[in-house]
Amino acid sequence: MKILVATEKPFAKAAVEGIRRIVESANGELILLEKYTDVSQLYAAVEHVDALIVRSDKVTREVIAHAKNLKIVVRAGAGFDNLDLNACTERGIVAMNTPGQNSNAVAELAIGMMVFMARNSFQSGTGTELKGKTLGIHAYGHVGSLVGKLAKAFGMEVLAFDPFVPEEKMHADGILSVKSAAELYNRSNYVSLHIPATEQTKKSINYDLLNTMPIGACLVNTARKEVIDEEGLKRLLADRPDFKYITDIAPDSPEDFKVFGTRFFATPKKMGAETAEANINAGLAAAVQSVEFLTQGIDRFRVN
Length: 304
What we know:
Elements lengths: L1 E6 L5 H13 L3 E6 L4 H7 L5 E4 L6 H6 L5 E4 L9 H6 L3 E4 L5 H16 L15 E5 L3 H12 L3 E5 L5 H6 L3 E2 L3 H7 L2 E4 L13 H4 L7 E4 L8 H10 L4 E4 L6 H4 L6 E3 L9 H21 L8
Parallel strand pairs: 1-2, 1-3, 3-4, 4-5, 6-7, 6-9, 7-8, 9-10, 10-11, 11-12
Helix pairs in contact: 1-12, 5-6
């Protein structure tokens, strides 16, 4: 049993050591490909392995074509749009993610972003407090539910829209469920995005939707840049000098947004999962899931 960890941006040393213990305790062989600079290196490394673990590395149809023995690929993290699921399915390869492992890190970042924008990006001038403001959570999954819990501790009123989560679950958490995205945005001073990038959601966060938000509103994006209609967002920021946008995923044209000063901020690189705890948790979970599938056929986090 050969398991390849291929990471342009490597796991922390403690995570790699933990992954090695998990693999070797199951009599497997761990192969590391870290900080590779050309996809041809990945093509060569993946040729004879049974499992592939990646972070944000792209597992394309071409990568799959070079993986003659591959049986499972695991993305260490919640999102999995860097995996070509169709190519995996066609080859009978199981694709998984590691839901929940990065959730607390992303949730804390989302709250930190709200504080940052409420306090004028820590520039001079009078800011505002989160207490008493309304937060709308767009998608109430692992991260969204944690954001809601943290926001309530700040004294915020919390609404959520997610047609896939029962109202009873939200109500049990003290969250008010709303019936539509339109209602969520119309009622929220802050909206925290946690929707995936799908054919239905891409560019769905647009001018018309955002323009319904109250005066002084702020959009917080720790999800995916593809869900934002960037042209519409730029137009909104130009039309509404009260509106703010902060994102953990830099837009395609970040220079175009810099004209909006402190009303726009993008992290220099994606920071959502960049904590020591999340790095270790996701890596260990990916290793456990790979071993469990190869030895027992367990595929509870399969996404294809």
